[in-house]
From TrEMBL:
Protein's membrane topology: Multi-pass membrane protein
Descriptive protein name: Solute:Na+ symporter, SSS family
Family designation: Belongs to the sodium:solute symporter (SSF) (TC 2.A.21) family.
Record organism: Mucilaginibacter pineti
CDD domains found in the cross-reference section: SLC5sbd_SGLT1-like
Length: 551
């Protein structure tokens, strides 16, 4: 339980974000209400976003309570291993900046399903619209609510569902009223608060442990020195050897960062192509931090527990005669034992930042897709005002569905692994269709349609088999390698179907693939350090050095 001053700080933070979200959204709409583009202003902030706000908003939409809670849990359980997801994201953000963002801006699309229709056909657009809404509800909202509910229940002692409903309703109100402008403004603030809270926790854990060397000494004594390694050998008990990371993550990452509406919507609202490129690269540099401020505290918690400086008895229970630790609550335990009163409120504000930014970003993308890709198809003459109204209703319904999913998702032992397990079965056909669509002239509309349909069906079937029969051959395949195998199947399928059903380009689709890998690098760039090519090379160099250090 936390003290009254911390409760006040947390409540004030929620109130301030609520007021800023409403004020920024309403102010923006008043300034632009007579420009005959009400829907564009609401869903895409009038396409006036600059690179700093894009980068911060991308990071805030990605980082939620799930990351704060589950990355600390993974640090406690497996060490720095799951930090691979954070650092590998930098490479996919480079892909977004160099190869995908220019097409999205050039084609003038409002949604990624809209882009698929321009490159392929209407059927591909319809399927991606459905998958995008489902994934936003399940992955971006429901899992975040679950992680937030666990933390708030432990800290405040209130019912998990009551706490997340209150936070969700508050977030939904300013998101629905203010649109993307409210989302991006609040996300930028929340990113700063979230990072500040995470840095405080990292420093507190580091200080309590007495530094890096005492931690290493404890790991040596417990035989767990491999927890410092991010690239594990073949046969590692985690199921994530180094080759699984480099083969499997790109399948998940390209879908998540380059082809998921919830994430890419911030790029679609960019002022111009250079802002659309530099924004993701800025986010890529920020993504270096999570390993040190989200994962590392969990590893410190493990060593603190073994050195007697952290009491984890509240997390222990006996299952089948064996003592086990339910590490889901480790971050909350660290807050209550390592952080002094007064600063706890800041940590809770950081947790709420992650929860609220994830919900707001997902709700805004859902409302955009439902309005543009679903409703407008059947009501092509719908006014901007009607599209905005439909989007607001869709956001409200999505929130209710997400809340109903919480009991089911709570069955996962690790929230982070549960999240990525689901993504591993959703992403392969979408990643395949986008990659071939952008890089291969001969990728045809029929091949994309059947790859999306059949690939998704195979993914669902494999997922169900793995859960119903975990001892089966399929059930024994780690989710990262499963993502790669499913991607290879989809790749063979689409290439084969493209030769069987050759492409017939329209005047528009003929402009939506790169003629060579070097073509996107010829785009006009800012001078100096703001040059997206310079930033890309710098980011690649830094990531290679970091992986080498923590190999």
């Amino acid at each position: 339980m936390i003290h009254t001053p911390d409760l006040i700080i947390s409540a004030l933070y929620i109130a301030v974000i609520f007021i800023i979200g409403l004020w920024s959204g309403i102010r923006h709409q008043r300034k632009t209400k007579n420009n005959n583009n009400e829907a564009g202003e609401y869903f895409l902030a009038g396409k006036k976003l600059r690179w700093p706000m894009i980068g911060l908003a991308l990071f805030a939409t990605n980082i939620s309570c799930v990351h704060l809670v589950s990355l600390a849990q993974s640090g406690f359980d497996t060490g720095l291993l799951n930090g691979d997801f954070e650092w590998m994201a930098a490479f996919t953000l480079i892909l977004l900046a160099l190869f995908f963002a220019p097409f999205y801006i050039k084609s003038g699309v409002s949604t990624l399903p809209d882009f698929l229709e321009k490159r392929y056909d209407r059927a591909s657009r319809d399927w991606l619209a459905i998958i995008s809404v489902v994934s936003a509800v399940l992955i971006h909202i429901a899992f975040s609510l679950l992680a937030g509910g666990i933390v708030l229940h432990t800290l405040f002692g209130v019912d998990m569902y009551t706490s997340v409903i209150v936070i969700s309703v508050i977030t939904t109100i300013y998101t629905v009223v203010g649109g993307l402008t409210a989302v991006v403004v609040t996300e930028s603030i929340q990113t700063v608060v979230l990072l500040g809270g995470a840095i405080i926790m990292s420093f507190a854990a580091y200080h309590k442990m007495g530094g890096w060397e005492p931690m290493v000494e404890v790991l040596k004594n417990t035989g767990e020195l491999n927890k410092l390694s991010m690239l594990r050998p073949h046969g590692d008990s985690s199921g994530m050897p180094w080759y699984a990371v480099f083969l499997g993550y790109p399948v998940l990452g390209i879908w998540y960062w380059c082809a998921d509406q919830t994430i890419v919507q911030r790029v679609l609202g960019a002022k111009d192509e250079n802002h659309a490129r530099v924004g993701p690269l800025f986010c890529g540099f920020i993504k270096i931090l999570p390993v040190f401020i989200f994962v590392m505290p969990g590893l410190f918690a493990y060593t603190l527990a073994h050195s007697g400086h952290l009491d984890i008895s509240a997390l222990k229970s006996v299952v089948d005669g064996k003592e086990v630790v339910n590490s889901k609550g480790i971050y909350t335990l660290m807050i209550t034992q390592l952080i002094p009163p007064g600063l706890i409120g800041v940590l809770v504000a950081a947790l709420l930042s992650g929860l609220m930014s994830q919900i707001s970003g997902a709700l805004n993308s859902i409302s955009t897709i439902v309005s543009y890709d679903i409703y407008k198809r059947y009501k092509p003459a719908a006014t901007d005002k009607k599209l905005v109204s439909v989007g607001k209703i869709a956001a409200g319904v999505s929130l209710v569905v997400s809340l109903l999913l919480l009991p089911l998702l709570n069955n996962y032992e690790s929230i982070f692994n549960g999240l990525n397990d689901i993504i591993a079965h959703i992403a392969p056909p979408i990643t395949c269709v986008f990659l071939l669509g952008v890089f291969w002239e001969k990728a045809s509309a029929l091949s994309a349609k059947y790859t999306l349909w059949v690939g998704s069906a195979i993914g669902v079937a494999v997922f169900v088999i793995g859960k119903v029969a975990p001892a089966s051959f399929i059930g024994q395949i780690p989710f990262m390698m499963m993502a790669f195998y499913l991607f290879v199947v989809c790749l063979i399928m689409q290439i084969g179907l493209s030769f069987l059903y050759p492409v017939h380009h329209t005047a528009e689709s003929a402009t939506l693939y790169w003629k060579s890998p070097w073509e996107p690098l010829r785009g006009k760039a800012w001078s100096g350090l703001g040059n997206y090519k310079v930033l890309s090379v710098l980011l690649i160099f830094i990531m290679v050095v970091l992986f080498w250090i923590f190999r």
